[in-house]
C-alpha cells in the first residue's frame, strides 16, 4: 500500500508536552550498510513508500487522535491504534480515518499509561501500561478481562528495580500465537545502562504465564520504543531517542532470540562471561530516509523524523515486509502524529 503524502496545517496551538529525552546518540555500527541507490531508499534493506499526516491534531467522537504509541493489525482488517492516554482507536486500513474508539482503564477505573498493544487471535486486546508495569486483556468494547502476572524485579521502584516511564514500551505475539513478548524501554537498576530486558509469557489455555527473559543492548542514548515479531520469529526493534536542539534518532533493528541466554534468574546483567545477549542487525537509521517533502515543527536531523513509537507488520511475502510506523506527538504543538509506510527486506536467517 503506497501512502499519499498529506501535509496537515495546524490552526490551534496546543500545550507542549515533554518528549522523551536521551543523551546525544552515538553513530550506528560501522558495519551498517550504506543507503542503497534508488528512489526512497533508507538503506539497502528498507525503503520509504510514503507518509501521512492526516491524523495530526484531529479528534474523533470527542477523543484527541494523538499520543499514539502502538499499532496492531485487527482481525477485521483494520488497524488498532493505541494512545498512551488510554484511548484505543480503530483506523481504516486504506485511509487511516478512525472508525471507532474505546476508553481503557485499570481495575479501579484509572486511565493507563498505555504503550504496547497486541490484537490476539480471538480479537481481545492485550495492552501494556508503564505505570506498574502491567499487561491487561480487554474485550473489543474496552471491558477489562484479566491481568497477566509480571515478574517482581520488573516492577517500578521501590516495588522492583525498574525506573518510572522506562518499562513495557513494546508488545508482540510471536508466530504461532503461544509466546507473548514485552520489551522494556530502559534498564533495571543494577544492570549495565543500555541493557534492557525482554520478558516473555507462554500461553496455557486461556491464560499467559511468565516464561523466558532475555537481555538486549541498545545503542548509546537510545531506548526501545517498540518490538514487533516478523513472520520467521525474529523481532523488529525500534530504538529511539531525543536530544533537545537536535531532534529524534530512530533506528530499526532486526533481533534474533535464538542462542540468547534466559536471564530470568540472573539478578544483574553486567556483561558477565557466559551471558549471551540478543543478537541484532541494523536494518536502517531512519535519518537516511528521503524526506519526501515532510516538514518538522522543531529541529530534526531529517524533517521526516518525529517521536516514532508504534509499529506493525501489515503484510509479508518471501522475506519482504510491509511495515507501518506511527509517531507519538505528545499532544504538543511542536510534534506531529505521522504514519510511515516502509518496505523491509529481511536478510536471510543464519544457522549460527
What does this structure look like?
The structure is a single chain. By secondary structure, the chain is mainly β. The chain has a four-stranded antiparallel sheet with strand order 1-22-21-20, with no helix packed on it. It contains no helices and 22 strands. The radius of gyration is 19 Å and the shape is globular. The model is unreliable at 1-23 and 30-38 (pLDDT under 50). The protein has a single domain, classed as Neuraminidase.
Kindly summarize this structure in a few lines.
The protein has strands spanning 46-52, 58-60, 63-65, 68-73, 79-83, 87-91, 98-103, 114-119, 125-129, 134-138, 144-147, 168-173, 179-184, 195-204, 207-217, 223-229, 235-243, 247-256, 279-285, 308-317, 320-327, 339-345. Helices cover 0% and strands 41% of the residues.
CATH class: Mainly Beta
- Continuous helix count: 0
Category by helix and strand content = mainly beta
CATH topology: Neuraminidase
Strand content: 35-45%
Write out the strand line-up for the largest beta sheet, numbering strands in chain order.
Answer: 1-22-21-20
Number of DSSP-assigned strands = 22
Proportion of residues in helical segments: under 10%
